[in-house]
Write a structure and sequence with these properties.
The chain is built from no helices and 11 strands. The protein is mainly beta.
């Protein structure tokens, strides 16, 4: 059974930064496409960023391009989402997810991701 766990959420002022981390137990993250998603109250869960297996490709939602960066740390078996210039509308629960079916690419839709973490709360407020 694959497990992923998110960490790094918290409360930050507008314009601030946070670094989210997705860690795995029992498997090597670099062998799987990894996506970051978020869900704000009353809204659908949406894709934020993803990185393909082996890091050949990365994608970002238009709303976070230029502000968020996804990266792998294979030595630590983690995937990090660096979030800069945070806005109140970035407030949400952030989830990481692993896909066992995507090869060579990643996607910002939920369907291909079959292992999900429990989420970490990010609140951007003054």
């Amino acid at each position: 059974q694959l497990h992923v766990v998110e960490s790094g959420g918290g409360l930050v002022q507008p314009g601030g930064s946070l670094r989210l981390s997705c860690a795995a137990s029992g498997f090597t993250l670099n062998y799987y496409a990894i996506g970051w998603f978020r869900q704000a109250p009353g809204k659908e869960r949406e894709g934020v960023s993803c990185v393909s297996r082996g890091s050949d490709s990365t994608y970002y939602a238009d709303s976070v391009k230029g502000r968020f960066t996804i990266s792998r740390d294979n030595a630590k078996n983690t995937v990090t989402l660096q979030m800069n210039s945070l806005k109140p509308e970035d407030t949400a629960v952030y989830y990481c997810a692993a896909s066992t079916v995507l090869h060579g690419l990643c996607m910002l839709s939920r369907g291909p991701y079959d292992y999900w973490g429990q989420g970490t709360q990010v609140t951007v407020s003054s």
